[in-house]
Amino acid sequence: MKTTLIQNALLTTLLALQCESAAIAPRDDSKIVAMDMQLADQDEVIDDGDISKRDYVETDLKYKKNAFTIELKIGSKKKKVKVAVDTGSSDLWVPTSKVQCLDKVKCKKQGTFQVEKSSSLKKLNEPFDIEYPDGTTASGKYVQDTVRLGKKDTLSDEQFAIVDKTNAEMGVMGIGLRGDEDSKDNSTNDNFVYSLKKAGYIDKAAYSLYFPEKEKKTGTIVFGGIDKDKYSGDLKTYKVSDKLTVPLKSVSFQDKDYSNSTDALIDTASRFTHLPKDILDGITKALNGTYSDKLGVYTVDCKLRGHRHKEALTFKFDDDFSIDVPVYQFVERLKWIKKTPDYLKNHCGLGLFEADGETILGDNFLRDAYVSVNLEDKSIGLAQTVHSKKHSYQSL
């Protein structure tokens, strides 16, 4: 299953990581492409019925959208378009200037590609039609054109799709495993990461991701390498097959271990973490959480949201490796439509949910987990994140 890009919402704010071309980090002699990603707020269209008749909270907690976006320059006119980086798919697509935005979604806000103005574009006789598990769709045609990542890194005749109909808020750069492309000829259609290697910009079809601390604005994606100043210890490597999953054995809190061995999907497009029911039940009980049927989320004391609250959830992947994530990373404010009900004053939402068939480690987990993905070796490396302002890039 490809990772979700847009999930039904419950707050009115989308946190998106946007990457400006000026933020490209300088490369040394190693072959890497390192880019800073800036956290920004983005408006969101919510189909939540008639909220005027409700006096309880409307949150985007359970299915809050999340996107890391980087800026590309496409075609002979170097048209700027921001695209969401997706670890669960492998196609690159962008909306055209004439795109039809479905479901009242503002699909042009992050930029569009004016096909008719690019003299370097080559049309291919292949349709593009993709649907993600959350119902997000995009349809159009495959083309080839020049794609620029920053000021220097240029891919000539890069294959991607131009979309003329979608209900997604932006285009997508799929950087998942080979074979996740919509193209019928998946065996020869390189995704963007492989294209960077083929062009000689990186040595390995790989990348790493650093998520910033909660409410901070700068993260980093490193194509072809890692940033050794952003994690402690060694990267623990796990082999993958058809999905970017790791073996999660248990989650512990306050010396209590909640076990349920399962494969967990590393999902950059999910704002929150989804866990097996028995693990979730144990954690929410320990946090004195109360489930709200109206909201569809657990609520906890907002005191847990403060950075002074140092207690952490420990995610154990095998006997000698685990990741600690402070509790406050999982606690979210609730935004009220009307007056806050007395019984929910000083309560916040918990960004942990019951897994619906698939355990997902989302953004709030990844803020303390450094991730390195090697598409060629089909492996994932994990390490405890270090929130440092320094950089020490190393190619893979």
Number of strands: 27
Query: How many distinct helices?
Result: 3
Query: Could you list the spans in which at least 5 consecutive residues all have pLDDT below 50?
Result: 1-27, 39-64, 183-188
Tell me roughly what share of residues is in helical segments.
under 10%
Radius of gyration: 21 Å
Report strand %: over 45%
**Backbone shape:** globular
Oligomer: single chain
How many angstroms separate the termini? 27 Å
Structural class estimated from helices and strands: mainly beta
Strand order, main sheet: write it out: 3-4-9-5-8-7
Written as H for each helix and E for each strand, in order along the chain, the element string is EEEEEEEEEHEEEEEEEHEEEEEEEEHEEE
Major sheet: size, sense and barrel closure? 6 strands, mixed, barrel
Mean pLDDT: 82
EC number: 3.4.23.24
InterPro entries: Aspartic_peptidase_A1, Aspartic_peptidase_AS, PEPTIDASE_A1, Peptidase_aspartic_dom_sf, SAP-like
Keywords: Aspartyl protease, Disulfide bond, Hydrolase, Protease, Secreted, Signal, Zymogen
Pfam families: Asp
Give a verbal description of the structure.
The protein is mainly beta. The protein is built from three helices and 27 strands. The chain has helices spanning 192-198, 277-286, 363-366, and strands at residues 14-19, 33-42, 66-74, 79-86, 92-101, 122-131, 137-149, 153-166, 171-174, 206-210, 218-223, 225-227, 231-239, 245-253, 256-266, 273-275, 290-292, 297-301, 312-318, 321-326, 331-332, 347-350, 352-354, 359-361, 369-374, 379-385, 393-395.
Keywords:
396 residues, mainly beta, six-stranded mixed β-barrel, five-stranded mixed beta sheet, 3 helices, globular, protease, Peptidase_aspartic_dom_sf, SAP-like, hydrolase
